[in-house]
Amino acid sequence: MYRSFKEYGEEVKVYRRTEKKKKSLYDRPMEKVELYQSLLFDEALENRQVFNRKIIGKDDVDLAQLITRLNISDWVQQGYEIVRKNEDVCPFCQQTLPEQFEEKLSSYFDQTYIELIDELNNTTNDYEEKVGFLISQIDSLSKRDTTFINIEKVENLRKLIKAKFDENLCLLRKRRRNLVELLNLLRFQKQLGEVNLEILNANEKVREYNTLIDNARIEKENLNSDIWRFIAEKNKNDFSLFNRKSQK
């Protein structure tokens, strides 16, 4: 049985539509993309009281006024550690120290002083660790697929946060040397908020892309059905002819 030119034309159209659909579904990556995670930082860490509290020794010791006036508590504390190892002899001039001198220093650097020093050191280390980790998280954004997120803007924000962090490290080192100086850390919540806004926008794009992937899987199933339908329709006459011959 011969087919008309129109029938052949329709067949070509169906074939071309099927081929185009096949390319759009199979000739691109079909993996879904994970959402970006928002970045978190506990602002309470910057507001710890130990950063804004003068750390001085016991004020009822007769050495306290001199140490406070000259702002040398940190220097005296270091010297005290040396004195304790030299059995009442000055490690510098080798003269015998005044009576009860070590005892007075021990009273000045009491348990409260020691606990505050430990708290300052622990809080400083905690701050350095957590902000350092935060910056590494921002760095990792650029290592992912840059299709969805504005890497240039995120990188500029990272540089601003890193600059403030570096300045804060200098302030923290200075604070450790000068225990009576109050500390005001530079804040970077505004920049972090902008990074999270970029992540929010990127996740919208990721969700749209993943929806397309889900739909593409359904379309693939439909395409497979269309192909088999096309093959069956194309060979329908041949099947009919074969069946008639088989029945003779």
Automatic annotation (TrEMBL):
InterPro entries in alphabetical order: CR006_AAA
Coiled coil: 199-226
Protein CR006 P-loop domain mapped to chain residues: 16-245
A UniProt-annotated Pfam family: AAA_13
Keywords for this protein: Coiled coil
Protein name in UniProt: AAA family ATPase
Native organism: Peribacillus frigoritolerans
Top-level taxonomy: Bacteria, Bacillati, Bacillota, Bacilli, Bacillales
